Every structure is written in structure tokens, then in C-alpha cells.
């Protein structure tokens, strides 16, 4: 996510390293590269210029604190300005009303229908709501069927009225259906439309007037860059929506839409789509996104994902198993499945400070988990429980270099055990690949550079450290 922008900003800010103080000359040189990086990311020229002017004004107006080097101070100022540019504080979704009505709008192909399902899944599982999806796209072939499939995937009912070509009437009936069935959130999926299509814009305006929704959300494809911003402005002039949804953000290497859209339309980004799965939806936090853009990771979001998947009581039991040397392959399999539910491995590693850059060029495929799962499932119960960690858990609190030595030994033990427990030509290929060695080397390099991602690992749990790294290596 935003790899190109992150690399260029890091190189630009690196110019101040080694300087004893901030001067107008070195600030000008740095901000010239920052502005160029923003323009390459498809950020509006005026916004990029205003951004660098604000950073320059703040940088020259401050004395370097005793605890901060000029480079560190510049990073802090850039981060604060990026946060404000993207909205400052996170904007929550308005769930007042009984039922709450959320109207989805946007261009064709922006991902409205899929995101409607993701939003329903989010509200159901994380906000304890009872959502209803309403199919109001009467133009696109199979649009209604697609929404029914999405509804089945997330376990949310779908209201449709096949044969009725009046989306305003369908939307009204959907709200009435929700009231009768005690469903407290109605998500209305509408047809894609262009802002220049007066007939279609009149139609969605009529839907808006008929429903008076608590939230009107504009869904936009993040990869369209500045075009997304221009489209959002045109829609807002007609519809006056409440917030923006950025889809396909995981495939956006530039980041122009995320950085620019708030300044242009003065409406907050409320959610982002970060993958194809139905749980690949995140609340948009400008400060966390600024951290990720500057290569600082997003530890808070990673902890939140982990807390959703890991039961505290089970984690304590597992720690006791490890301490008593009773950790077997069934336990290991359970940890793999929990990690998979947290999201893609590359996305998770990208949330760790400093790690995203180290692994961005590696092809980390989540399908690799399947090989391990297949091997473990092929074992007998006796074979699964025969394997024990031979290493004293106290080793994990030593220096990080020692941790990696232990980890290499554990990987070796697993490989040797599997060679005896499972016969197959691909066994060594699974546990002794160049990919594994490359990852181990990169993680060693990251740790030796004294990057701060280890703080999270040590604070959250030694157990998560084992789970995260062992899973990534395969």
C-alpha cells in the first residue's frame, strides 16, 4: 500500500539526516523532493504546494528539541501535516435512526455491491447490528443476484423486488421490510452512474429525498487517483454525501486519492477496502495512515486485529503449554488458522514498523499455509503430539539475535520431524526454501537496525512473536 510514495518520502526526508540544525537551505532541498513525491503520487498540484509550504513554515518556526534530530523533527511535522490533510480525526458512521439507512453511491465498477456486503458484515460482527441489504440496481445484469450471493457470504438478509424497475419504490419497501423484521440497519445498494448523466443523478437524488438516510456514502476506486477526486467533487455538488469509501486501497501504490480527497470535497474518508475478502474493511484513521505512508507501520491496527482473533484465556493456556513443553502440531495449526483470519501475511507484516519496506518485494503467498496444513492433517494424533519445543521459553527474553538463533533451530526441528512423520517429495521444499531463508535474513537485518517493531512484539506477547514469524516463514 502506497509503496512508491513511501519510498520517495523516505528518501526525501533522509536528506536531513546528519545535519546539525534545520536551515532554510536544507529544508528547501528536502521539501522539493517531498513535493515531487506527492505529485508523482497523483496529488493535486495546489494541495502539494500548500502542504510543503505549511511544513516549511512550521519547520523554520521551531527550534530543534534536544531529544530530536532535524531529520526526526521533519518527519514529525510531515506526519502531522499528512494527518490533517487526510482529515485529522477518524469519522465514525452515523448509526442513529430506527432503522439506520445508509445509501451507497458511486461509479460503475467502483465496488459498491461488494463493499455493501463488507459494511454489512462489519456492522453485524463489530457493532452488533442487524443489517439488511437492499438491491436497487435495476440496470446492471445479475446485480441483484450478486447482492444475494454477497448477503449469503456474510449471513445478512437481502431484500429485492424483481420485476420492479423503480429503485425509489424498492428502497422504500426495503426500509419497511426492515421495520417489520426488526432489522436496525438498511444498506441500500444503488446502480453505478456518472455525474454527467442527469437522468441517473436525478434518480439517486429522488432515492435520497424519499429515504432521508442517516448516511450517504460515495464509493470510489482508490487506484483511479486524481480522477477519483474529481468524480467525488462532481457527485458531491449534486448529492452532498456524508463520507467517502475508498476501495481497492491494497492495490494503490501511489495514494493520491487518499491524501487529496478530503481537502477537495471537505468530506471525510470513513472506510477503506483492503482486500477481496468480506472482512477486508477498515475504519479510516488518518494518523495511522500517515504512519504507514512514512514507513512507521500501524501497530495499533495490528493489535486490534489480533485482539479480535485471539481469546485471552486460550492465549494463557497456550503459554502454559509452551512453558511445560506441551506445545504440539494441533496447537501450531490453530495458530496458523488464527493468523490467516487476521488478514494477508504481507498486509500484517506491513503494519510492523520498518518491516514493510523489507518485505515489499517478496512474493509472500498465503497459499503457502495450505502446504503446512496438509502436512499436519496427514499426521496421526500420536505424531502430532510427539513434537515438542525443546527450548527454554526464557530464551525469548534475551537479545533478539538469540531469538533468531532459537527460531532457526525450531525451524530445523520442524523440518527434521516432518521428514520422519510424513513421506513425500515436497516435504523439504515446504520447509527449506529460498523464500524461508530470505525472510529470515531480512528479519535479522531489520532487528539489527534497531527498528522499533520489536517493541510491539515484546509488549504484546512472546507467543505472538512465535506465531507471526513462524507463519511468515512458510
UniProtKB/TrEMBL annotation:
GO terms for molecular function: 7S RNA binding; GTP binding; GTPase activity. It is an enzyme of class 3 (hydrolase). Its EC number is 3.6.5.4. Residues 268-281 form the SRP54-type proteins GTP-binding domain. It catalyses: GTP + H2O = GDP + phosphate + H(+). It holds the Pfam family SRP54_N. SUPFAM superfamilies: P-loop containing nucleoside triphosphate hydrolases (SSF52540). This is signal-recognition-particle GTPase. It comes from Capnocytophaga ochracea. The lineage of its organism: Bacteria, Pseudomonadati, Bacteroidota, Flavobacteriia, Flavobacteriales.
Amino acid at each position: 500500500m502506497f509503496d512508491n510514495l513511501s519510498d520517495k518520502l523516505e528518501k526525501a526526508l533522509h536528506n536531513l539526516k546528519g545535519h546539525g540544525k534545520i536551515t532554510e537551505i536544507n529544508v528547501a532541498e528536502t521539501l522539493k523532493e517531498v513535493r515531487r513525491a506527492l505529485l508523482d503520487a497523483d496529488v493535486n498540484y495546489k494541495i502539494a504546494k500548500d502542504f510543503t509550504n505549511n511544513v516549511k513554515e512550521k519547520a523554520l518556526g521551531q527550534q530543534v528539541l534536544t531529544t530530536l534530530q532535524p531529520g526526526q523533527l521533519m518527519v514529525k511535522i510531515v506526519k502531522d501535516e499528512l494527518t490533517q490533510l487526510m482529515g485529522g480525526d477518524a469519522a465514525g458512521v452515523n448509526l442513529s435512526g430506527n432503522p439506520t439507512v445508509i445509501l451507497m453511491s458511486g461509479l460503475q465498477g467502483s465496488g459498491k455491491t461488494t463493499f455493501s456486503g463488507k459494511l454489512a458484515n462489519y456492522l453485524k460482527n463489530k457493532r452488533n447490528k442487524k443489517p439488511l441489504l437492499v438491491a436497487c440496481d435495476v440496470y446492471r445484469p445479475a446485480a441483484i443476484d450478486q447482492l444475494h450471493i454477497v448477503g449469503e457470504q456474510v449471513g445478512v438478509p437481502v431484500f429485492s423486488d424483481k420485476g420492479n424497475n423503480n429503485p425509489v419504490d424498492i428502497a422504500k419497501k426495503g426500509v419497511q421490510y426492515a421495520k417489520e423484521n426488526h432489522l436496525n440497519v438498511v444498506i441500500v445498494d444503488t446502480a453505478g452512474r456518472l455525474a454527467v448523466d442527469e437522468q441517473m443523478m436525478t434518480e439517486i437524488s429522488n432515492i435520497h429525498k424519499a429515504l432521508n438516510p442517516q448516511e450517504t456514502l460515495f464509493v470510489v476506486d482508490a487506484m483511479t487517483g486524481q480522477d477519483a477526486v474529481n468524480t467525488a467533487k462532481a457527485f458531491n455538488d449534486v448529492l452532498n454525501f456524508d463520507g467517502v469509501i475508498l476501495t481497492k486501497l491494497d492495490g494503490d501504490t501511489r495514494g493520491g486519492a487518499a491524501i487529496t480527497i478530503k481537502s477537495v470535497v471537505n468530506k471525510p474518508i470513513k472506510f477503506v477496502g483492503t482486500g477481496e475478502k468480506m472482512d477486508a474493511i477498515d475504519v479510516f484513521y488518518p494518523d495511522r495512515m500517515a504512519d504507514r505512508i512514512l514507513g512507521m507501520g500501524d501497530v495499533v491496527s495490528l493489535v486490534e486485529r489480533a485482539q479480535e482473533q485471539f481469546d485471552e484465556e486460550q492465549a494463557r493456556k497456550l503459554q502454559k503449554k509452551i512453558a511445560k513443553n506441551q506445545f504440539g502440531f494441533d496447537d501450531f495449526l490453530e495458530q496458523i488458522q488464527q493468523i490467516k483470519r487476521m488478514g494477508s501475511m504481507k498486509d500484517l507484516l506491513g503494519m510492523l514498523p520498518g518491516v514493510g519496506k523489507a518485505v515489499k518485494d517478496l512474493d509472500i503467498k498465503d497459499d503457502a499455509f495450505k502446504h503446512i496444513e496438509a502436512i499436519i492433517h496427514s499426521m496421526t494424533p500420536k505424531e502430532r503430539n510427539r513434537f515438542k519445543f525443546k527450548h527454554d521459553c526464557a530464551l525469548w527474553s534475551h537479545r533478539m539475535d538469540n531469538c533468531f538463533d532459537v527460531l532457526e533451530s525450531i525451524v530445523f526441528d520442524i523440518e527434521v520431524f516432518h521428514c520422519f512423520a510424513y513421506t513425500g517429495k515436497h516435504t523439504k521444499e515446504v520447509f527449506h526454501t529460498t523464500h524461508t531463508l530470505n525472510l529470515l535474513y531480512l528479519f535479522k537485518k531489520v532487528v539489527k537496525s534497531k527498528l522499533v517493531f520489536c517493541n510491539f512484539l515484546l509488549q504484546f506477547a512472546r507467543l505472538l512473536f512465535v506465531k507471526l514469524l513462524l507463519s511468515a516463514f512458510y
